[in-house]
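Lay summary. Proteins are chains of building blocks that fold into shapes, and those shapes determine what they do. In this project we predict the shape from the chain. Here is one chain we studied, written as its sequence of building blocks.
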Amino acid sequence: MNFSDVEVDQAEVAPLDVENENDEEIHGGRIPDPVSRMARLHEGLKDLTVRFLHLDPPMQITNGTRRERRERRGKTGFRYALTSWRKFMKAARIKVRDQVHFSFDENEQVLSVERVVPYVRRTN
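And here is the predicted shape, written in a compact code that computers can read:
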């Protein structure tokens, strides 16, 4: 299938839970597949601009990307990750288990952190 006539400005990506990974979340710096495709990281690694819109005042950093080999369901492929996960976490003031809602602007090639929901420990 070819969807070359479809334009996508901004994609909402599922929130990330820093501790519990699924295929649509960043974990350990890994970039969700839809974001890596829109950023065209398969064509070549590059720096990504990350905007922290949830901070007051908002701020922006640049973070490099790296390619990791992965095997999934018997197939070998690649996934992409931020080179400095700690820099990202510290700049965004994200703690382990926080849930982060973000989007990716394909035209500007910017990953925006829109909201961080702090982890609240449940008591029984």
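What the prediction tells us: Residues 39 and 109 are 6 Å apart (CA to CA).
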